[in-house]
Automatic annotation (TrEMBL):
The lineage of its organism: Bacteria, Pseudomonadati, Pseudomonadota, Alphaproteobacteria, Sphingomonadales. The keyword Cell cycle does not apply. Pfam families: FGase. InterPro entries: N-FG_amidohydro, UCP029730. It comes from the Bacteria. Keywords: Hydrolase. GO terms for molecular function: hydrolase activity. This is N-formylglutamate amidohydrolase.
Amino acid sequence: MSDVFRLLGTPRFGGILVVSDHASNHVPADIALGIDPQLLTEHMAIDIGVAEVGALLAQRAGFAAFQCAVSRLVCDVNREEDAPGAVAEASDGHAIPGNMLSVAARAARIARFHAPYHAALAAQLDAVPPALILSLHSFTPALRTCDKPRPWQVGVLYNEDDRAARLALPLLTAEGLVAGDQEPYSGKLLNYTMNRHAEAEGRPYLGIEIRQDEIADAAGQARWAEILFRVTNAVALRLGE
C-alpha cells in the first residue's frame, strides 16, 4: 500500500477496475493548506461517497478499486500536471494559501503525488488488464452559483470513446434513474485520467458521476454498489461480444 493510492480487492484479468481520483480528503501531516478544516468535508476536497461505493464493489468477485489516497486539494490527479487545478490555489471561492507555491515546490508536490499515482495505475492496468474500467466520481446536487437543483441522479461522461457509455445509459434508465448524457458537465472537458489510461490505450471505460445525496449514507452507498455491479457487468459482457 502507498500514501498516494490504495488498492482494494483482488484485480482479475478480464474483471472490472473501479478508479476514483477523488476518493479521499486526507492531507498529509507535513502539508498545511491553510483552510478551515470543515472545508475538507465538502466537495472541493473529496468526491463524497465514492470511496465507500468503490470499497463495496471491491468485495465482489472480479472487482477491485484503485483510489487516490490524498485530497484533490493536495493534488488533483485528474488534471494535467501542468494545469493550474492540479495544485489549486483556490477552489469553490476559497483561497488555499498552502498551495501558493514556488515553481520548485509545486514541481515537488506533483512529483510526490501526481506522478506516482499515474505510474501505479498504469502498472496495475498493464499487469492485470480489466475488461472495463469504471471511473467513479460524484457531483454536488446544486451549484453554489445557481439555486436550481441538478435533476440527474447519475451522469455518464466520456471523451471520444463512448462505447461503454452508449451501453450504460439505457441500462441506468431501466433501473428507474434519471441519467444524464454528458451531464452535469462534459467528459470532453475533464477526463484526464481516462484520457491517459483508457482512451490513449484503447481500453474500454465507463465514466460515472453519481449525485452526492444519492450516496451520502450507508444505505445509498449499498444501493449504488448493487446498481453499478449489475450495470458494469452487463456493459463488460456486451463489450466482449
